[in-house]
């Protein structure tokens, strides 16, 4: 067998377990590929070969024994503190054994590098970081998505077969969509969070996998969840299509690809499709942003704001200062909207099994100007993307982004959301969708890797 670099995550694990692939050779080949491909991507901002070799030498024969993984710059490691892609964090940043690190270690995986991320996790684009922006492997002048930009670009460029990101307001699903990957935002509280500086206060952030397909996500997320995410049969799937701007105010090619994918999923599962109205969606989006910002106020004081590191971007500085201006009554009202949204979803999920809409309304925009053109006009990518990404974080339900097409040579993605705790159903539905389209989109790779350009 070759060096195994282009095998899927589960194929790497199986080949190592069968003695067909040497994990030490795979690690060295992975480090060499990062050195070769990463300069054009800036996806991985730190490697530590000796630490990775030590981790492999001590690794137990777990389900991911010997598999190299990239982890987002949002999680501390025993030998490196997280930096959040920023010149300054307002919280203490210390090296340590975060929950995702321990989960990977105990599964036998090897942390091979730290993935770049959008500064302070504050955007869906990935175009700002103290390390410089990460680049989309499909077109390096385009956004890779944020804030888990480096982990997504790492997998899309086949530097590694799997990466760990974090999703507070869509930050796994946006880069999955832009980079043509599968990314699961788990049910709140189900995946490893220890060691995150907001683990004790956040009600929106979860850790999660970014992989080429749903089966790889199932394998990596099973490790992060600390339990096996068993596969099932989604026959008779009841699919609710969310009507309104989240499905209608999208680029025509995105809408067509997502509508075709929904029809494919219906046929593959022998299911049915019905339209669903969520009148609270716009308010829920605003409530999510307010809650996510208010929960990060702990380390902010006027003195700290006046002493911010000058390397912090103007946007980052402005965002931190904005947070102290949010009135308390707005956060209280946001909590009420969360309650109403959960009540609405409880009723909706009595009628349907999954909700479907485009993950993002347009393909990856330019790094230099992250603006998208929609039927309603030109919007920043952030204000457009959050409309579909926020509800799952507000209510805690799981959501998954799955590649389903292309436009302008860039990936298009469909988002599926399910009721609280039904992460496995989303993975089952994603695998059914892969079968329906012959795995065309999950097996596509960027032209820079020698593949043919994407065609719709």
Residues in helices, as a percent range: 25-40%
Which parts are unreliable, with pLDDT below 50 for 5 consecutive residues or more? none
- What about the largest sheet? 11 strands, mixed
Taking strands numbered 1, 2, ... along the chain, how are they ordered across the largest sheet? 1-3-2-4-6-5-12-13-9-7-8
Name the structural class.
Answer: alpha/beta
CATH class group of the largest domain: Alpha Beta
Please trace the helix and strand order, writing H or E for each element: HHEHEHEHEHEEHEHHEHHHHEEEHEEH
> How many independent structural domains?
2
Mean pLDDT: 95
From the 3D coordinates, which CATH architecture of the largest domain would you assign?
Alpha-Beta Complex
Number of helices: 15
What multimeric state do the chains show? single chain
Q: Radius of gyration over alpha carbons?
A: 20 Å
Q: In CATH, what is the homologous superfamily of the largest domain?
A: Amidase signature (AS) domain
Termini separation: 33 Å
Characterise the protein shown here:
Strands 1-3-2-4-6-5-12-13-9-7-8 form an 11-stranded mixed β-sheet, with helices on both faces. The longest helix is centred in the last third of the chain and has 24 residues, at 328-351. It has 15 helices and 13 strands. The protein starts with 8 loop residues before the first helix and ends in a 20-residue tail after the last helix. The chain is an alpha/beta fold and 456 residues long. The chain has helices spanning 9-17, 23-37, 49-57, 99-106, 149-156, 173-179, 214-225, 245-248, 252-269, 281-294, 302-306, 314-323, 328-351, 381-395, 423-436, and strands spanning 44-46, 68-72, 110-115, 162-167, 182-185, 206-211, 238-242, 272-276, 354-358, 371-374, 377-380, 399-407, 410-418. It folds into 2 domains: 9-225, Amidase signature (AS) domain (Amidase signature (AS) enzymes); 238-421, Amidase signature (AS) enzymes, CATH 3.90.1300.
């Amino acid at each position: 067998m070759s060096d195994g670099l282009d095998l899927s995550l589960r194929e790497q694990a199986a080949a190592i377990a069968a003695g067909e692939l040497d994990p030490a050779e795979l690690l060295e080949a992975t480090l060499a590929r990062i050195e070769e491909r990463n300069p054009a991507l800036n996806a991985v901002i730190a490697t530590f070969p000796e630490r990775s070799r030590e981790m492999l030498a001590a690794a137990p024969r777990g389900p991911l024994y010997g598999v190299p993984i990239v982890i987002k710059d949002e999680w501390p490691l025993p030998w490196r503190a997280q930096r959040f892609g920023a010149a300054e964090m307002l919280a203490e940043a210390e090296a340590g054994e975060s929950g995702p690190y321990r989960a990977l270690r105990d599964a036998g995986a090897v942390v091979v590098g730290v993935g770049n991320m959008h500064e302070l996790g504050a955007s869906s684009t990935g175009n700002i970081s103290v390390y410089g922006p990460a680049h989309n492997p499909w077109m390096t002048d385009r956004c890779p998505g944020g804030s888990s930009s480096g982990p997504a670009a790492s997998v899309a460029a086949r530097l590694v077969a799997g990466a760990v990101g974090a999703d507070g307001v869509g930050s796994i699903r946006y880069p999955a969509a832009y980079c043509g990957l599968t990314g699961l935002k788990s049910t709140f509280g189900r995946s490893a969070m220890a060691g995150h500086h907001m683990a004790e206060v956040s009600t929106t952030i979860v850790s999660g996998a970014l992989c080429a397909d749903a089966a790889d996500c199932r394998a990596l997320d099973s490790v992060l969840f600390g339990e096996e995410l068993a596969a099932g049969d989604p026959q008779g799937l009841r699919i609710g299509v969310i009507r309104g701007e989240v499905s209608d105010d999208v680029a025509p090619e995105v809408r067509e690809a997502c509508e075709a994918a929904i029809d494919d999923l219906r046929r593959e599962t022998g299911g049915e499709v019905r339209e669903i109205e969520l009148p609270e969606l716009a308010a829920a989006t605003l409530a999510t942003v307010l809650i996510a910002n208010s929960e990060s106020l702990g380390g902010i004081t006027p003195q700290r704001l006046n002493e911010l590191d000058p390397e912090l971007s103007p946007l980052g500085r402005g965002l931190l200062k904005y947070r102290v201006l949010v009135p308390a009554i707005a956060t209280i009202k946001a909590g009420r909207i969360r309650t109403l949204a959960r009540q609405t979803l409880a009723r909706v999920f009595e009628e349907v099994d999954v909700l479907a809409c485009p993950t993002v309304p347009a393909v990856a925009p330019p790094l230099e100007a992250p603006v998208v053109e929609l039927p309603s006009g030109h919007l920043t990518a952030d204000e457009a993307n959050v409309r579909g990404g926020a509800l799952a974080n507000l209510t805690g339900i799981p959501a998954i982004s799955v590649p389903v097409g292309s436009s302008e040579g860039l990936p298009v993605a469909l988002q599926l959301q399910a009721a609280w705790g039904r992460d496995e159903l989303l993975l089952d539905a994603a695998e059914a969708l892969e079968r329906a389209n012959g795995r065309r989109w999950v097996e596509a790779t960027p032209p820079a890797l020698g593949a043919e350009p994407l065609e719709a």
